[in-house]
From TrEMBL:
Highest taxon, organism lineage: Bacteria
NAD-dependent epimerase/dehydratase domain segment(s): 4-229
Family listed: Belongs to the NAD(P)-dependent epimerase/dehydratase family.
Protein name: NAD-dependent epimerase/dehydratase family protein
Pathway: Bacterial outer membrane biogenesis; LPS O-antigen biosynthesis
Organism: Reyranella aquatilis
Length: 314
């Protein structure tokens, strides 16, 4: 039986991924290392797993969790772009040193495969989309730099120590279990639930690539099964402006409950337009993000409503 360590397993992507592993009936023992900043094992009540509360910045905790595993899915990270501009040191410690700790422990324990969450837009900076793996990285914020450094160490450990390292460059992931996320879809739904206004930074023309979490998790598992290495973009492959996103979200929430939308100044350091070309993931391991935005938003809103015990949709 395979033994898979998932760092950040209590978080948004991790908790969805663990459910998908269980639903697929995979012959895998799941180990989780999580510091509980973005979730808790209470969010995975029905799942049989080996749980380690601990931080990826603590090499001893990492070694304990890695012991006996053949595969690591490294999701734990500090993911906020604007916060990384305000506090680049914390971002560095978690994303660079934390990933380095994971790779060292993997090397020392003879782990054969590490799959790590990375990012497309933030690594590449303000370039003309669609972004793809062949582009020269030019991060515009410390977050992108930290992920680029992590990918660099992954590549070096792969070449130097014979382990297989794959960097999956996630686009903007949304879906159920994102309650603790500050990202656009989660934040806008929470504002709608609370009856508070939404603030759009800029005029809403900024473009992102919104991928449904179940599609993304299928991609992660496909990448593992296909034994690929290197970097791959995982997104919907489709551009959506924030204004278009808000129009779709309003349809799902209903006009009666839809809050006011205010427009504020652009935030410094933000990428204006990014979406990705997913050809490499499609041909490399059959990645197919099939969920339309409207359907994914509906599933996400229903989950948010279920969290507040509210079944009245509109
Ligand atoms: N955004 C916004 N208001 C919010 C949250 C996000 O206008 O309350 C915008 C944000 O400025 C960005 C886009 O939505 O242009 C996506 O933001 P998110 O933080 O989800 O992802 P990222 O900027 O890291 O791609």
């Amino acid at each position: 039986m395979s033994k898979i360590l998932i760092t950040g397993g209590c978080g948004f992507v991790g908790s969805n991924l663990i459910r998908q592993i269980v639903e697929q009936g995979r012959d895998s023992r799941i180990v989780v290392l999580d510091n509980e900043t973005m979730g808790s094992p209470r969010d995975l009540p029905d799942i049989d797993l080996d749980y380690h509360k601990g931080d990826i910045c603590d090499p001893a905790a990492v070694s304990r969790a890695v012991s006996g595993c053949d595969t690591i899915i490294h999701l734990a990270a500090n993911t906020r772009v604007i916060e990384s501009i305000e506090d680049p040191t914390l971002n560095f410690e978690v994303n660079v040193r934390g990933t380095f700790n994971i790779l060292m422990a993997a090397r020392d324990a003879g782990v054969s495969r590490v799959v790590m969450a990375s990012t497309g837009g933030a690594i590449l900076g303000d370039v003309e989309p669609p972004v793809h793996e062949g582009m020269v990285p030019q991060p515009a914020a410390p977050y992108g730099a930290s992920k680029l450094a992590a990918e660099g160490y992954g590549s070096a450990f792969s070449a130097s120590y014979g382990m297989q390292v794959t960097a999956l460059r996630f686009s903007n992931v949304y879906g159920p279990r994102s309650y603790r996320k500050g990202s656009a879809v989660a934040h806008f739904f929470k504002q709608a639930l609370d009856g508070k206004p939404i603030t759009v930074y800029g005029d809403g023309s900024q473009v992102r690539d919104f991928v449904f979490v179940a599609d993304l998790c299928r991609g992660i598992l496909q990448a593992i099964d296909a034994n690929v290495s290197g970097a791959f973009q995982l997104g919907s492959g489709k551009p959506t402006t924030i204004n278009e996103l808000l129009t779709e979200m309003k349809k799902v929430v209903g006009t009666g409950r839809w809050p006011d939308v205010n427009f504020a100044d652009w935030r410094a350091g933000e990428v204006r337009r990014t979406y990705c070309d997913i050809t490499k993931a499609r041909t490399g391991f059959g990645f197919e993000p099939a969920t339309p935005l409207s359907q994914g938003l509906e599933a996400t809103w229903q989950w948010f409503l279920s969290q507040v015990g509210d079944t009245a949709k509109k």
